[in-house]
Write a structure and sequence with these properties.
This protein is about 50% helix and about 15% strand. It has 33 helices and 27 strands. It is found in: Cell membrane.
Length: about 900
């Protein structure tokens, strides 16, 4: 299939003459293709549609979840339990596996295929010349060689080379990210390396025609279009596991070795002692249940789900739970400009009129705002400029801000409204007598109108708008507060004003007026009369920043996050916007970074924070290189051209008002389009990660304490190697440990969380310092739990409920409850406010522990016996050692950190 970047030769379409392109695709520029030829080509090239990625089925996702190592281990435990007639244990563990698989599958199936959204964007109808007649056909039936016609308001149905055009402009923000409409014509572009946004003789699928008309020859359809190439990139980008998924997978592998290693030791020890095989297997099952963090997948899912609900309340929606945690690790944000950091609404910000500077308030297309200037200066008469703004433009803007026509002209109509001029009424009062339509060849527009003359009768007035350079060359005078002045006296001041506006990243338009002598007829050749103009003023237009963007960038940088702006706009404009936002140093264009090798670009990235005129491939490459350099990358965007980079990023952030493609490719959607919401989401992500770390610390301490307990009991034949029954272990895991986890989950985020640098993704949850704490805390719980078994060895029995085992069960339960209270924060004290909510939740497992020991049917279920008052006091005293020791250890650690900070 021919593509948008090349034809039958190696020369790109845009670098070839229009007639050569027509000949290359074997068509007729006037008659188009025949119906028969179109049918043949459709069979050859396929429909003009985006190929969709097949979505995985529910069963495929479920089987992938079931294959998770943690679930595989649990399945093995459940099967063996049933085999040795431990039905209740097998059922409970099996139910846990089903819960894990259900939660994981449910979340994964929420995400739809990204390329499906591209297919939905396909335009249903197109105007095409077939058999010499203009007909309307399904856009999916277009083929290379079709001749299509376009006019204002149309959506381009396929990539095409312009054959002829009249004042054509297209809005390509969805593809290139550039906010201003692009002037188009059929002229050949000589440079074959011209970037996508500068290919002015091409039109691209799913961009919009904002002005003029055109005829184009289709050169690419379906997957051969620029949209299709984005779809191909999207398919090639494989979603990677989040940092948390990778860490938990690694931790699961370690725990598997610990669990089955301990089981092997216990079974071998039991067999060497001559114990019955069934008893040894039961003991191994007890050990496995103790050593495998059975609730970890479910608890982490619940914790992340809670985080996703918090994000949703702040207008940020995540599609996969693990992405909540990824947010907290974000160390780099690559943000699109148009519609993300900016409003995507062209607005006049500054005005140079009659030799004076004015600022314009108000944002977007709201007609409310003021025109302000230095105090003490007289207020000028804006009549001449207001006439040019309204009459030398075609766009309309309703009082509700709805725009029809060119966005730049809409900004001019809004400025006129702020001057008190209504565009619709002005156009009715002074109808257009003649015009010179805007064209990129001469870069201006002129209109002629009849208006009342000062001495009676009527006079002809010419109004002109265009690029400052071309308008200035046709001016002979400049309007000032004292009347017209010769152009040569003011030329340098005007050039200085133009440069100042341009350096601020504003798009500058010049306005001029010419009054003809009364009785002058409307010119037969309007173009010849665009001369002897009087310059009225310069207008600076910008796509304004969102009100919250600058503060959001400041907070992000304070949090140690590198923020970069990546846009399709020119690098000069992008650099000016970057300066307003307070981004770091350095700007580069797409062409400049394309000329760099990966190694060169990576080396320069720390000093590059603004990228202009970039392609979708550039965005994808930047995200990839940052990831390879160790960064956790968030990419924001709302346009189709952002989709592949969003999918590549660790956390792709789509805007709620953006295209369906970006919403599907991204991992998070900002419902309110507010860049500041992303910073809030990062803060919540950090808080959730801290909670997960606290949970893992608590869970692993419990796990190590039980592993040590069973190993020591087996090796030293304490109660025949059975310190706790399998049901007791399950009771501790399901009915006791869950409440300290809830306390950790509900604990508010600590102050100053956004003043810390991003966590090092290379420093895993299971880092050296953390593992030492797990063993220390777990060892403490193990020792306190073992003491009752050592105090009353004569009361131990492996066949009937007895006090020492019950006391060990109680100490393990209370140690879990009190330990969870103080482990909810680290290194901060767990006994600081707010603590009331935590105490309320922990009262529940405390009551359950008492009930399991003292209520008859629970005694029989769990295998406990009633305890005396003294035995309860011993259990309470032993379990209180756990929080006291942990709080003392954290106090020492905080003191050491303060000393180190003071020394540095």
């Amino acid at each position: 299939m021919t593509t948008a970047t090349g034809g039958s030769t190696d020369t790109p379409w845009f670098a070839q003459d229009a007639d050569a392109v027509v000949a290359s695709v074997a068509t007729d520029r006037d008659a188009g293709l025949t119906s028969a030829e179109a049918e043949r080509r459709l069979a050859e090239h396929g429909p003009n549609a985006i190929a969709a990625e097949p979505a995985p089925s529910v069963w495929q996702v479920s089987l992938r979840q079931l294959a998770d190592p943690m679930n595989v281990m649990l399945v093995a435990v459940a099967i063996i339990s049933l085999f040795i007639n431990q039905v209740s244990v097998g059922i409970l563990v099996g139910a846990l596996v089903i819960l894990n698989v259900f939660l994981g599958t449910r979340q994964e199936m929420k995400a739809k295929a990204s390329v499906d959204a591209l297919a939905k964007m396909q335009i249903p109808k197109a105007k095409v010349i077939r058999d010499g007649a203009l007909v309307q056909v399904d856009a999916t039936s277009l083929v290379p060689g079709d001749i299509i016609t376009l006019e204002a308001g149309d959506i381009v149905p396929a990539d095409g080379r312009i054959i002829r055009s009249a004042t054509l402009e297209t809005q390509e923000a969805a593809l290139t990210g550039e906010s201003a409409p692009i002037a188009k014509d059929a002229a050949v572009i000589a440079d074959p390396e011209t970037t996508l946004g500068d290919r002015a003789n091409m039109v691209f699928q799913n961009t919009q025609v904002t002005r003029g008309t055109a005829t184009a020859v289709v050169v690419a359809t379906g997957m051969g279009t620029q949209m299709g190439q984005i779809a191909s990139m999207l398919s090639a980008v494989k979603p990677s596991k989040s940092p948390l998924q990778r860490e938990l997978d690694s931790l699961t592998g370690v725990l598997g070795w610990i669990a089955w290693g301990a089981v092997a030791i216990i079974i071998i020890t039991g067999l060497l002692r001559g114990q019955e095989i069934a008893s040894v297997i039961l003991l191994g099952i007890s050990m496995a249940i103790s050593a495998i963090p059975t609730g970890m997948p479910s608890f982490v899912q619940a914790m992340l789900s809670y985080g996703s609900r918090q994000l949703a309340e702040h207008k940020a929606v995540v599609k996969n739970l693990t992405d909540v945690e990824t947010l907290g690790a974000t160390s780099a944000i690559n943000s699109d400009k148009t519609g993300t950091l900016t409003m995507n609404e062209m607005t006049v910000e500054s005005l140079y009129y009659a030799g004076e500077w004015f600022t314009v308030s108000g944002t977007g297309y709201e007609k409310t705002g003021d025109i302000r200037h230095a105090a003490g200066l007289p207020v000028p008469d804006f009549t001449q400029l207001a006439l040019a703004l309204t009459l030398c433009s075609d766009a309309t803007v309703s009082d509700d801000g709805d725009v029809i026509g060119d966005p730049t002209e809409a900004a001019l109509v809004v400025l006129a409204a702020k001057m008190g001029a209504d565009a619709a009424l002005t156009r009715v009062e002074y109808p257009r007598a003649a015009e010179v339509p805007f064209d990129s060849a001469y870069k201006f527009m002129a209109t002629f109108h009849e208006r009342p003359a000062a001495g009676g009768g009527t006079e002809l007035v010419e109004l002109v708008k265009g690029g400052p350079d071309v308008v200035l060359e046709r001016c002979s005078s400049v309007l000032t507060v004292d009347g017209a002045a010769p152009i040569e006296e003011k030329r340098q001041a005007i050039l200085d004003a133009n440069r100042e506006l341009s350096e601020r990243g504003l798009r500058v338009l010049a306005f001029a007026v010419r009054r003809f002598a009364p009785g002058t007829p409307t010119p037969a050749d309007p173009m010849a009369e665009v001369k002897d103009l009087s310059l009225a003023g310069l207008v600076g237009i910008i796509d304004p920043l969102r009100p919250s963007s600058k503060e959001a960038v400041r907070i992000a940088r304070e949090a140690g996050i590198e923020v970069r702006m990546i846009t399709g706009d020119h690098a000069i404009t992008a650099a000016a916007i970057g300066a307003q936002l307070g981004l770091g140093d350095g700007a580069a264009s797409g062409a400049e970074i394309q000329a760099m090798s990966d190694e060169e670009l990576t080396a320069k990235l720390p000093h590059l924070h603004v990228f202009g005129r970039v392609t979708p491939e550039d965005k994808l490459r930047l995200a990839r290189l940052m990831q390879e350099d160790g960064a956790v990358v968030a990419m924001t965007g709302d346009a189709v051209n952002d989709a592949a980079a969003l999918k590549q990023a660790d956390i792709g952030v789509a805007m709620g008002s953006g295209s369906d493609v970006t919403k599907q490719a991204g991992k998070m959607i900002l419902v309110d389009d507010n860049f500041g919401t992303l910073v809030t989401a990062v803060r919540l992500g950090r808080a959730i990660y801290d909670k997960i770390v606290s949970y893992v610390r608590f869970q692993m301490s419990q796990l190590f304490s039980l592993v040590l307990l069973f190993l020591v009991a087996s090796l030293f034949d304490i109660n025949h190697g059975v310190p706790l029954t399998p049901i007791m272990v399950l009771f501790l895991n399901f009915f006791i440990a869950i409440f300290p986890v809830i306390v950790i989950l509900l604990d508010p985020a600590p102050e100053g969380i956004m003043q810390k640098p991003p966590r090092d993704p290379k420093k895993t949850i299971a880092n050296g310092g953390a593992v030492v704490l797990w063993f220390v805390y777990g060892g403490l719980i193990f020792i306190t739990t073992l003491i009752p078994l050592l105090l009353y060895p004569d009361q131990l029995s492996s066949t009937a409920p007895n006090a020492p085992v019950t006391m060990a069960f109680v100490v393990a339960a209370l140690g879990s409850i009190f330990g969870g209270l103080v482990m909810r924060r680290d290194p901060e004290s767990g006994l600081t406010a707010p603590i009331l909510v935590a105490v309320k939740w922990l009262a529940i497992p405390l009551a359950l522990t008492v009930a399991a020991v003292e209520i008859g049917f629970l005694q029989r279920l769990v295998g406990t016996t009633s305890l005396t008052g003294n035995e309860w006091l011993i259990c309470l005293g032993l379990s209180l050692l756990v929080p006291v020791f942990i709080e003392l250890e954290k106090l020492l650690r905080r003191s050491r950190h303060r000393r180190q900070a003071g020394a540095s």
